[in-house]
Amino acid sequence: MGETNESRLERARHEVSPRKLQKQMAIASAACTVFGREGYARASVDALAAAAGVSTRTLYNHFPGGKAQLFQTVVTWTSSEVRDAQLARLHAVVHPERPPHPDDLERDLVSLARAFHGLMADYANHFALVRHIHAEADHVPPEVLKAWHEAGPEPVGRALTEAMTRLEDAGLLHLHGDAAVAAGHFTALISHRIIQATHYGVLPLPEPETDRLLRAGVSAFLRAYRAP
């Protein structure tokens, strides 16, 4: 069996020199813009190389797996940035050592919803990639989808599940025996309608409408999960 893009990328991380790493990041940065605009299937290696100001030969020298490896690098890199920002915002609101007071729970969850929503504007290039990943899932290599989930959605989902469990332990929520499902419901209720309406932030809603939808999502979540 041949070497996968994932194993090639991991091997390259251990072999790359600082100068080569700088070149790879420059190529990946340019590729992020191209992939965000064109998507995975439509972006050609020629266009990716041209955007980075390198030849296709140079691109393959740095990314032997070609477009798939480059896309995986970009998705993993941007997902890691967004993941770290999400975790920081989560812990700022639902701190492991100081759960909200019952009277502040709705206010704090609205603050968390706003913080998560703000990521779409702060990391617009990443969410452009996510939009294309969802639209082209049948064309994106499985190893790229796996790398994306492992870099971003999975660790954030675990952290949010742990936060929900802490809120239940504090007597603020009743999760009906499945904290992961409750965490998924929270994410869906605060984001799904906005994602649909804005196409992952491409067409932003007026701020009052965004705030109304975020508050409505939190309110629906608490109607289902607030502790009696």
From TrEMBL:
<dbReference type="InterPro" id="IPR009057">
    <property type="entry name" value="Homeodomain-like_sf"/>
</dbReference>
<dbReference type="Pfam" id="PF14246">
    <property type="entry name" value="TetR_C_7"/>
</dbReference>
<dbReference type="InterPro" id="IPR036271">
    <property type="entry name" value="Tet_transcr_reg_TetR-rel_C_sf"/>
</dbReference>
<dbReference type="InterPro" id="IPR001647">
    <property type="entry name" value="HTH_TetR"/>
</dbReference>
<protein>
    <submittedName>
        <fullName>TetR/AcrR family transcriptional regulator</fullName>
    </submittedName>
</protein>
<dbReference type="InterPro" id="IPR039536">
    <property type="entry name" value="TetR_C_Proteobacteria"/>
</dbReference>
<dbReference type="Pfam" id="PF00440">
    <property type="entry name" value="TetR_N"/>
</dbReference>
<feature type="DNA-binding region" description="H-T-H motif">
    <location>
        <begin position="44"/>
        <end position="63"/>
    </location>
</feature>
<dbReference type="InterPro" id="IPR050109">
    <property type="entry name" value="HTH-type_TetR-like_transc_reg"/>
</dbReference>
<feature type="domain" description="HTH tetR-type">
    <location>
        <begin position="21"/>
        <end position="81"/>
    </location>
</feature>
<keyword id="KW-0238">DNA-binding</keyword>
